[in-house]
Write a structure and sequence with these properties.
This protein has 456 residues and is α/β, with parallel strands linked by helices. The protein has helices at residues 4-11, 54-59, 75-81, 93-107, 122-133, 151-156, 176-184, 199-202, 205-212, 283-297, 302-311, 338-349, 370-379, 396-403, 416-426, 444-455; strands at 2-3, 14-17, 23-24, 27-28, 39-40, 64-67, 86-89, 112-117, 139-141, 164-168, 188-191, 224-228, 243-247, 253-257, 262-268, 271-277, 320-324, 327-332, 355-361, 388-392, 409-413, 431-436. It starts with a strand and ends with a helix.
């Protein structure tokens, strides 16, 4: 919690109304989510200026707000009507938000921060680590997708009395990590991989590598950086200012993949233990291995490590298994990248079903690399046993063209309704149907439609 005086100091702002000794506890950037007592931060976007909604949040009894644009309000009438509301004038509301996030992190450097970044797998890795550490520690964990230059400072403002915070750092433009690492100041950081997510904006994997590894530029305390040794970029990283530890899928022995869970053996404190993950997705093996490494840094007991991993659950729409009277849907539609699509397809390939059907939609934000990456995705079917592929979108046709060499039945559609009709036409008892595509392709709507019809 910050006092108004601290907020004014951190932002070099000017207090126009309200008391310096007042304490602010909650911050919101979406006027629709403001509740009584929340402090509103009106961000100026490309299409909408949050200042337009200041009168709306005042009616909701907000505690106060930043202001940098007076075009939409009568400040004098507001001051006369709302004498206790805190109004702080700042030059830039977004920069002010980031500054108070940094201020609060500096105020609570005793709280250990474990930061996770990478092209894919950030959220599942974050949640696996949190599931283990929460067995013995009081944690704060990134909520939803609040991992960028807007969301992360809001999370940092919640640092207060926790033992640790497990925070995700996501970037989609060059220079964003420079902002994030000033807020994070991590004691321990994890980089999952260097893939192709947002490559259309960032330009190349080399640029992604350079940007992601900036997370190590502002580490404090232990300064332990955990890197995926199986990644061709990360296994070359050098930095004399941090302590580098590696983790690898090769640390998992005797891997057994079942329809509902995974088992494998790995070392925990130099003794092999059998680890059980009660969810789908081979990528969770690597997530569990890095969670074990982080837990060992903090001397979490062997029993707590195993319990924490066993309690881990996937988020909705991340390899989510849906049983519909003999037909199994795997909803992996939260988002998509080449790496996550390949991993999902391989995981479902291990499942037992009468037929395996893949429903794939476009992977977006690939820019000039779209064709190349969709072709690469098609090649994965050479090693898999799928009976049918349904492809929906403009770029996924390149995947389908390659996949025709390995799958007898391939259907390509540019119309989502026709693609949905095809799924309904062919699905039958015993089928396993894997859905994957970028969130904006909206194929989750197909799953919801099918679920609704089965329930009625």
């Amino acid at each position: 919690m910050l006092s108004v005086k601290e907020i004014v100091t951190a932002t070099n702002g000017k207090l126009l109304n309200g008391r310096l000794d007042r304490t602010i506890t909650q911050y919101k950037i979406d006027s629709r989510e403001v509740n009584k007592g929340d402090f509103y931060i009106p961000l100026i976007g490309e299409k909408v200026d949050g200042h337009k909604f200041i009168n709306d949040v005042l009616e909701k009894e907000c505690s106060g707000f930043f202001i940098s644009n007076y075009d939409y309000i009568d400040i004098l009438s507001i001051k006369n009507k709302y004498k206790d509301v805190v109004i702080i004038e700042v030059k830039n509301t977004l920069e002010a938000l980031q500054k108070i996030g940094i201020y609060n992190r500096n105020k609570h450097l005793e709280i250990e921060v474990i930061a996770i970044t990478g092209s894919v797998g950030k959220t599942s890795t974050r949640e696996m680590i949190a599931s283990v550490l929460s067995e013995e520690k009081k944690l704060m964990v990134t909520q939803k997708n609040m991992n960028g230059h807007i969301g992360l400072p809001i999370m940092a403002l919640q640092l207060e009395e926790q033992d640790m915070a497990v925070l995700e750092a996501g970037i989609d433009f060059c220079g964003e990590m420079d902002i994030l690492n000033k807020i994070l100041q991590p004691n321990v950081a994890v980089i999952t991989n260097i893939g192709t997510s947002h490559i259309g904006k960032l330009g190349s994997q080399e640029t992604i590598y350079n940007e992601k590894t900036k997370i190590a530029n502002n580490m404090i305390g232990k300064k332990i950086l955990l890197l995926n040794k199986d990644d061709k970029y990360l296994n070359t990283y050098k930095n004399d200012n941090v302590n580098i530890m590696y983790y690898s899928i090769n640390e998992a022995k005797n891997v057994k993949i079942f329809d509902n869970h995974i088992k494998f053996d790995t070392k925990i404190y130099d003794k092999y233990e059998t680890v059980k993950i009660n969810t789908l997705g081979e990528q969770n093996i690597l997530n569990a291995i890095v969670a074990i490494k982080v837990a060992q840094i903090y001397n979490i007991s062997r029993e707590s490590i195993l319990n924490g991993i066993s309690k881990y659950n996937n988020f909705s729409r991340r390899m989510e298994k849906i049983d519909l009277n003999g037909i199994t849907l795997i909803d992996d539609t939260y988002n998509a990248s080449l790496t996550s699509a390949e991993s999902g397809l391989k995981s479902v390939d291990h499942m037992h079903g009468k037929r395996k059907i893949a429903f794939l939609a476009d992977i977006l934000e690939l820019g000039e690399f779209a064709k190349e990456i969709h072709i690469e995705l098609g090649k994965v079917f050479k090693e898999l046993n799928y009976d049918i592929l349904i492809a929906y979108g403009d770029n996924i046709k390149d995947t389908a063209e390659v996949a025709k060499k390995y799958i007898n039945n391939v259907y390509v559609y540019n119309d989502i309704e026709k693609a949905e009709n095809k799924v309904r036409e062919i699905m039958t008892d015993g089928d396993i149907i894997y859905f994957k595509g970028s969130n904006a392709m909206n194929i989750n709507s197909i799953i919801e439609n099918i679920k609704r019809d089965f329930m009625n």
